[in-house]
Amino acid sequence: MDDCIFCKIVKGEIPSKKIYEDDKVYAFYDINPEAPVHFLVIPKDHIASANDLNDNNADIVSHIFKIINKLAVELNISDKGYRIVNNCGEDGGQTVKHIHFHVLGGRCLHWPPG
């Protein structure tokens, strides 16, 4: 999508602090971190939200979780734990209409999140 900020990040039109990229996904640090480690993993293909997953594109979620696991180990948050967050829709707190997964770690994360 031409007006999607995450699509622009994937294309290199908007700078980001990349930590991982392959042919399917892009991972980068959040510009307003809520934890010592806070990054996002997004599919390169535009999928608006979890509501738009289907038989043709749902395999991207398993790939994203494999990459999250890899990055959690590399960033030393896997042993003590971390949180994976996906906001879906307006009431779910989704502000960018491109499915994405926040990964937060490096401190104790309380529940409920707020």
CATH superfamily: HIT-like
Query: Architecture, according to CATH?
Result: 2-Layer Sandwich
Q: From the helix content, strand content and strand pairing, which structural class follows?
A: alpha+beta
In the CATH hierarchy, what is the class?
Answer: Alpha Beta
List the secondary-structure elements in sequence, H or E. HEEEHEE
Number of structural domains? 1
* Total DSSP helices: 2
* Low-pLDDT runs: none
Q: Give the overall form.
A: globular
Remind me, CATH topology?
Answer: HIT family, subunit A
Task: Estimate what percentage of residues fall within beta strands.
Answer: 15-25%
Q: In which order are the strands of the major sheet placed?
A: 1-2-3-5-4
Number of strands: 5
Helix content: 10-25%
Main sheet specs: 5 strands, antiparallel
Structure explained in plain terms:
With about 110 residues, the protein is of the alpha+beta class. It has two helices and five strands, in the order H-E-E-E-H-E-E. It has helices at about 5-10, 60-75, and strands at about 20, 25-30, 35-45, 80-85, 100-105. The mean pLDDT is about 95. The radius of gyration is 14 Å and the shape is globular. A hairpin with a 3-residue loop joins strand 1 (about 20) and strand 2. The longest helix has 16 residues, at about 60-75. About 20% of the residues are buried. The protein has a single domain, classed as HIT family, subunit A (2-Layer Sandwich), CATH 3.30.428.10. Strands 1-2-3-5-4 form a five-stranded antiparallel beta sheet, covered by helices on one side. It is about 20% helix and about 20% strand.
